[in-house]
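Email to the structure team, subject: NmrA family transcriptional regulator model.

Hi all, the expression group asked for a predicted structure before they design truncation constructs. Nothing fancy, just the tokens so they can compare against earlier work. One-line instruction: predict NmrA family transcriptional regulator, return tokens.
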Amino acid sequence: MYLITGGRGAVATRLTTLLHRDRLPVRVGSARPEDLTPPDGVATVRLDLTDPATFPAALDGVTTVFLYAAPDRIGDFAAEAHHAGVTHVVLLSSSSVLGPDAAGDPLAKSHLDVEQALLASPLTTTILRPGSFASNAGAWAWPIKAGRPVSLPYPHAHNDAIHEHDVAEAAYAAVTDPRHRGGRFTLTGPDSLTFAGQIEQLAAAIGRPIPVHRASREEWKREMADHIPAVYADALLNWWESHDGRPVPLTDAVEHLTGHPARPFTTWAADHATEFTAS
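Reply from the structure team: attached below.
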């Protein structure tokens, strides 16, 4: 039995579909299982990764877990998983853990804490470390639909935008193919793109120009204050500044795991174009 955590997320949803398609036994966990809409025949269970009382029922009969990185009770989760007979965990972590000061970076630390806890446990752990999700561009949907400029403090900062379907398909390979057990995989998109470049590709997908406003750091933080705590906003700004005009390294891990190259951002933009045009 496969247990998929974070069941409402895009990666978990796609992974569940792939496992069900191939008639593999799968259970989906979420803190709010009533909000899930899995394929017919897929069981759901309440699983709150901050509440150990929900762990035993979710893990009953499970041998492989796809795990979102939630650090609060990871030691308890690992212990209960081992007690329940789980033999393999595939962790969705982040390439931010590979940074020079990951332990001091609030964006990286939660992922690093989960990695370290699992690696110290008896569980065989496979780690997927995606870079920047292409879906981060979804934050631009509101101003684009409103006809307003997109605020970018570092429009020429590079990132390695990866399609959520590539992450899910890499996860499928990791949970089902024993050759990948215990591996560490840094997942990237196929291109090092600037935010300005992504905006251009998104504009082409929706068929109209998208204006950009070059915001100061403080201006951007004020705009995001209701959505991103200041400590995380500063960490994001520092990361963007460090990659301003500097291409990011790319990997072929998606192709290694899935057998196909990573999807370009143009594909993501086409797949999600209506999210930037619908009222």
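The longest strand covers residues 124-130. The two ends are 41 Å apart (CA to CA). Ping us if the truncation boundaries need rechecking.
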